[in-house]
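Inputs:
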Amino acid sequence: MEKKKEPKRIISETEKYVRQAMGKDRSGHDWWHIYRVRNLALKISELEGGDPFLIEMAALLHDLDDWKLGSDGNFSRTKKWLEALKLPKETIFLLTEIISQVSYKGAGVETIPSSLEAQIVQDADRLDAIGAIGIARTFAYGGSRGRLIFDPEIKPEKHADFEAYKKNIGPTINHFYEKLLLLKDRLNTKTAGKLAETRHSFMEKFLEEFFREWNGIGET
Ligand code: ADP
Ligand code: NI
């Protein structure tokens, strides 16, 4: 019979797998996004609690089946990997549940995860969507999907449901008003709330300067 794998080994094999699986992404969902989300999630967990193994595994796997990256919506790759690791059914269920609750689903859609582990991984993912890194990732994503930087004639949307959010093809600046600036008030933990402050005000400063320069006129 095959020996049961140690948690450390499971994590390092998962890290290797994800690094290879996300290696070609150029939309801001590359390995280094996963790396930061894992580190942020573990940092939050040190102060907020939760099961560190579930948190680290979910953080590593959270974008493997993301709808934006062409997934079938059934978390098939994630489940296949967890099954290949021979993890107990209960652990596979818990991890899939956490991962399914992480993603943002629209300005008008409330998504509060049911477990502390999912709340922490969602907070970590959202912290990496804001601040200087968030700005860089958003323009990388917009460019990868052929979106305009900005068009003053196209107004931001408040998506009533996930379907409306998925259909949205507005300019990248709109994404700040449709998601990024809303995130600081949608974090689950106090620790993430604190980490969000500097990142949030940096985005506000960025937008202020962006609009100051936008017209090419009126600058002093
Ligand atoms: P989430 O699951 O919350 O969407 P991800 O890790 O998948 O989190 O990353 C989402 C990031 O992808 C956004 O924060 C942004 O940088 C980029 N993104 C998603 N949708 C758009 C969009 N419509 N315009 C620009 N960037 C986008
Ligand atoms: Ni992510």
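The chain has a mean pLDDT of 94. Flag for discussion at group meeting.
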